[in-house]
Amino acid sequence: MGILLPSITLLTTACTHQYTNTESSQAVSDNKYEQQALAKLATLKNKMAVAKDKNIDVTREETIVWFSEQFLKFANWDEANLDAIEAAFGYERYYKPRKKGLALALPDYERRKVIEILDKGIQTLDLELEGKIKRRPVRKVDWQNTKAADNMFLSQGKPIFPYDYFSKTVGQPLTNTDIYNDHLGAIYHGGENLYPVDHDRAINSFLVKQDGTFDQELLKELTSIPDTNIGFLLYWLMGIPEWVEQQEPEVRKGRSLFTGFDVDNPLARELWAKIIRKTAELTKGKKVTELGYILANEPHWFAEKGYPMQKYKEMNEISSYTLTKFRNWLRDKYQGNITKLNKNWQSNFDDFDNITIEIPIDPILIGQPKWYDWSRYNMDRGTEWFTFMQNELHAVNPQADTHIKIMPRMFLDNNRSGGIDTEALTELTTMIGHDAKSFGSPPIRPHLSAKWNEKYAYYWSAVTMFHDFLESVAPNKININSESHFLSSGAWRDMDPRTSYVRSVYWLATLHGMDANMGWFWARDPDGSPEDRLEGELSFFDPGLAGAFAGSNNMQPHVSNEVTQVMYDLNSFSEEIISLREQVRPIRIFYSETSAINSKDYMTKAKKLYEKLFFEGLPLGYATKNIIEKQDNSKWDLIIVDNNHFVTDDEFNALQNYLSNGGVIVLTSAENLAYNEYGEKRPQQLQANNGKLIVLPNQTSLDEIKHVALTHVQKTNQPKLKVKEDNGQPYKTTAWRVVEQNNGCYLLNLLNFGHQQAHLQIYTDANEPISMVDLMTANKVDSQLNLQSEGVLLLQVNVNNSATCPSNN
C-alpha cells in the first residue's frame, strides 16, 4: 500500500507526553515544521515562476500553495485554541477518550502534511520542468457560465464536473473569495449558508407567518444571492412553526429526522405549496438554480420497531390523515375485497374504514402480507409527497430542475421500512440526486460490517453498485451528489486517510455517473476558526453535526488538496471519462423492490453477484419492470434473475414480454419468480417463446453464473482489450473499462481496489502488438505493468499501430 506517515492516532501518545512534560518543546517543534514548510513554499513558488516562463500550466501548484498557506494558518489557530479543538474531538464519541492528545498533536500533524504535499508538488513539477512528464493543462470549472444539458454539465461545449462543499462556513458571505474559489469550489448555495445557527436552514417553513404573509427579511436572504455563479437551492423540511402546531395538533405525528412534520397533513401541505410557489417565482431563471432545487435533505420514514431513528421521534406514531390514506390505498390494492385482506393479514376487519395498524411495525412480520402492504404504502406515500412538491414548483417554473438527496442505504441496505423507493424517486425528478459515500478504512461504528476490508482497501462497491442502479434507471439525467461522504461521515472517518484512496474514490464515482459533487464538509472560517454553527456549546437535533468537525478534511491538508487535484484531472479528461461511462451495459441484473421488501438479506446476496461480475471489463446495469417497459431492450444482451423469489404479476409479465420479444434471461434457480408479493405460489412459469431462457440448477455457484452470463454477451459488446491480473490472491481486485475512440485508438481505465499491488497484462484475443501511453504523464507504458493498491491509470492504447493517437494534447 505504499509508505505512509504514521497516523495521528499513533502520534498521540508521544505528543501527549511531550506537551505535558515541557511546554517549551511545543514552540520549538512547531517552529521547526513551520519553517520547513515555508522554505518549501518558497522553493515551489520559484519553480512555478520558471515553469510559467516555459508556458507550463501551474494551476495544480497554485492549489498546493493555497492549501499550504491556509493550513499553516489553521495549525496556528488550532495551537492557540487547544480547548476548542479538544472540545471538537470530544463531540465525536469515537475520539472522545483521546481528545486531549489528539488536540495537542493536531497542529504539528497539519504542518507535517503541508510539508508532504509541498514535497510531492515540487517533485512533480521538477519532472515536468525536466521534460520527464507532460501533464494536460487544467480545465477549470467556469463557475459563471456552466450549464445543465440533458445528461451532463457543459462548459464551452465540453463536459465539466463541478465540485464544492455542501455545508460551507455558515455565516460567511457568498462573495468571500477565501471560501468561494477554484480551490474549494465556487458553487453558490441557497442552502446551508442562508440562516444563522439558531434557525432552521435554507428554504424552510418559517417563511410564512400565521397571517399567511411572507417574512420579508427571510425572503431577502434568498433574493440577495448574487446572480453570478451557478448553484443550488435546498428545501429544508425539518421544522414547522408553532402556529401550525396550534391549529393542527397532529402535525408532528409521523415526523422523521429531517422531515419535522406529517407530510399527509393538509395545513402543512398548504403551507409548503405557498413556500414552493413563492420561492420558485423569486428564483426562476437565476444561476443559483442551475444545479437544481433539492426537494429534501436525506428523507426517510423508518417505521420499524426498534430502528435507531425512533429516538429522534421518527415514525413513533402516525396521524389520522396517514391512516385514512393507508386505508384508501388498501381499498384500491385489494379492489374492495376485505375478505382477501383479512385472509392475508389474519385479521377480521369488517370494512376498510375500520382497519388499524400498529406503527412502528414489528420486524417479526417481514415476509408477511401486512409487512409488505405497509412498506409498499410507505414508499408510495413518500413518492406522492415529492410528486406534490415537484408539481407545485413546476406550476410556477416548468423548467426547474429537481433532485432529492437520497441516502445510499435506502438502496444498498437490506432494510426496506424507510419509505423511500429509490427507483421511483429517480424517475420522478429531472436530475438524479443522492449523497453517495464510501469507507476508506473500517467504519468507526462497531455495528457496521467491515467484511469488505478483508479483500479490498476501501468500500468501492458502495459507490459503483448505487451509481450503476441510478444510471440504469435514468441514463439520460444529470447525476448530482449534493453531500458526498467520501471523506468522512457519521459512520466512518480516519485521521490520516490515504491520498490514493481520495483520488481513487472520486475517480470511481465520476466514472460511474457522478456529474457534480458537493463534499461533506468545509467548516473553517478564513481565520482558521470553526464556522458559526460549530462554536460554543453544541446541541443539535441532528445527531451527526456536532462531531463532524473532528477527523474531517478540515484537519487534513493532504486530503483537501487531493480532492481539488483529482477534480482538476477529471475535468481535464472529461471527454475521455464521459466516453468510458456512456457505454452500453450488456449484462443486466434484475432488481425487484417486491423481493427486497419481503426478504431480510436481499441486498446482501445481490452484492455478492454484483461483485462476482464486476471485474470482467464490462459495465454492469440493472433491469426492473419499469426499465424493461420504458427503455430500449436492445441496449443489453441478457438479464440475470437471481434471488428474486417474490415478484408482482406486473413484474413477471414484464420479464415474459422481454423474453417473447427475443430477450435472453438467465434464471439462477427455478425458485426465482415463484411467488407473488404475498407469498402465494405463482401458477405460471416463464416461457422462452421467441427468446432464450436458461434455468440453472439450484445452488449453482456464482462462478458458473458468471460464466453463463459472459458467454451470452454479444461479440460487439465484448471489450477489444483484455486484462489478465495477478495480485497474489484467489480473487480479482482491478476494475477495468475499455472504449474505442473516434480516431481508432482505445481508452483503458484501470483501478486497483486491493490491498496488494496487482501485476497486469494487457492483450487482445489475437495477441496483436499494442502500445500504450499514460495520459496523466504522456509516458509510454509497457503492456505488462504493476498497479499499486488504489492506483488509478488512464491509458491510451494503439492496437497494431493501426491508428494515430493524439496522446496528451
UniProtKB/TrEMBL annotation:
One annotated GO molecular function: beta-galactosidase activity
Record bears the keyword Coiled coil: yes
Keyword annotations of the record: Coiled coil
Segments forming a coiled coil: 34-61
Any single biological process term in GO: carbohydrate metabolic process
Record InterPro entries: Class_I_gatase-like, GH, Glyco_hydro_42
Name under which the protein is recorded: Glycoside hydrolase family 42
Species of provenance: Catenovulum agarivorans DS-2
Lineage summary: Bacteria, Pseudomonadati, Pseudomonadota, Gammaproteobacteria, Alteromonadales
